[in-house]
Design a protein that fits this description.
Blueprint (H helix, E strand, L loop, with lengths): L4 H8 L1 E6 L3 H17 L4 H9 L1 H4 L1 H7 L2 H11 L3 E11 L7 E4 L12 E7 L10 E3 L11 E2 L13 E2 L9 E3 L5 E6 L4 E3 L8 E9 L12 E6 L8 E2 L9 H18 L12
Parallel strand pairs: 12-13
Antiparallel strand pairs: 1-9, 2-11, 2-12, 3-10, 4-9, 4-11, 5-8, 5-10, 6-7
Length: 277
Amino acid sequence: MANTLADDYRRDGFVFPVDVLSATDAQQLRADLEAAENQLRDQPQKLALLRAYPDRLLPSFDTLIRHPILQAHVSQILGEDLMVWSAGLFIKEAQTPHIVTWHQDLTYWGLDDADEVTAWVALSAANLDSGCMRFVPGSHHVRQVPHVDSFDAHNLLSRGQEVAVAVDDSDAVDIILQPGQASLHHGHLFHASDRNQTADRRIGVAIRFIRPSMRQLSGDAALVALVSGVDNYGHFKIAAPPKAKLTADDFARCRLDSEIKRKILYAGAENAAGQRY
């Protein structure tokens, strides 16, 4: 009997590639993002919110997080009731030294369980030259390990966090994706990525799906999107889809939520100097 997607995910902590968007649709989504970035180029605070909350500020990205192919795959792991805790952008500009160190996603999110799946959707080519993600198969089985913070300016993570255990780089799998393809990975999976050595931006959308039963340990009601099924718990504040691009009301909602997320992400840190949120 052949393994199912859920079997592979339980064993390895990830599956890829998942064909979500056509190359044309991925390019159109990228164009919508870059038009918004250009519009906000002289407004750094709003630009930062756009990159942290594209799904709450651009209708096209709200449509992405509700994509039926993503829902069909993630629901095999988490069930039919799905929320998106966040959908932040990870952008490595062309020919830049930015990296992501070995880490586990759930380390600093302040959630009470591990019922989470990250769908990483490529909007540009993610390959060895552009700094694609690398996963260590089965590393999610060790659950949570200690991390240390570097606050390195070249690290795209909020605190420059890195696992405080040895990682054998030779065990890693290169997650090569074409525009429109996605990978799914567990919140405890060890993963990292190298710098972008190409002449194009490497753009990915990290869509963090959770079960509605999850909650913030801080007691805060973070802003989420209910993308499938029902919420029988009321642990989060459910956002309505954006009615238009970059509205003042949506920026206000994102700004309030960013204060909650920043408090959660930097809890216990020596400083809150990171760039995300």
